[in-house]
Amino acid sequence: MAEQQKKKLEVVQTLDSDESCQTFVLHDEDHTLGNALRYMIMKNPDVDFCGYSVPHPSEHKINLRIQSRGPPAADILRRGLTELNALCEHVQNTFEGAVEEYKMNQAMQQSTDNTEPMETG
Predict the structure, then answer these.
(1) Parallel, antiparallel, or unpaired for β 47-53 and 9-12?
(2) pTM of the complete model
(3) Structure confidence by residue, pLDDT tens digits, 61-96
(4) Using CB atoms within 10 A of its CB, is residue 43 exposed (0-12), middle (13-18) or buried (19+)?
(5) Which of 17, 47, 60, 85 has its CA 20 to 30 A from that of 76?
(6) pLDDT digit string (tens) for 18-40?
(7) How wide is the angle at C-alpha 55 spanned by C-alphas 49 and 62, nearest 5°?
């Protein structure tokens, strides 16, 4: 029996058809994504407001509200997710590069320590 896949994102429909103001429900998410995504979206000059809430601690979802100066909120959400993903990739690459550099320095230090001549007396 095929298990039905749960929605990860849904749009809460408003009475008016203004696409510049929408609330999105992101399932299986919490403050970790909510706060980072809110920060990235608020950097966009077309955004008037972006906020999120966790409806209840036992519910694993966040409500993300976006109000823009014209562009559709869905486009702003997509851009925010793309920019957040790029930032995370940059942090990961920087971290991995620093770890590799540290390992190389440690290996060079060990080889230098092993090749030093011993004092004879």
Answers:
(1) unpaired
(2) 0.79
(3) 999 999 999 999 999 999 999 999 999 999 999 999
(4) exposed
(5) 60
(6) 899 999 999 999 999 999 999 99
(7) 55
Quote the tokens at residue 80: 């925010």
Burial class (CB in 10 A: 0-12, 13-18, 19+), 5: exposed
CA–CA dist 110, 121 (Å, integer): 25
Q: For residue 113, give Cα distances in angstroms to 39, 86, 104, 105.
A: 47, 40, 14, 12
Question: Between the CA of residue 68 and those of 9, 21, 46, 76, 81, what are the distances in Å?
Answer: 19, 6, 6, 8, 16
DSSP 25-54: EEET--HHHHHHHHHHHHTSTTEEEEEEE-
Residue 49 structure tokens = 């407001």
Q: Are 33 and 51 in contact (CB under 8 A)?
A: no
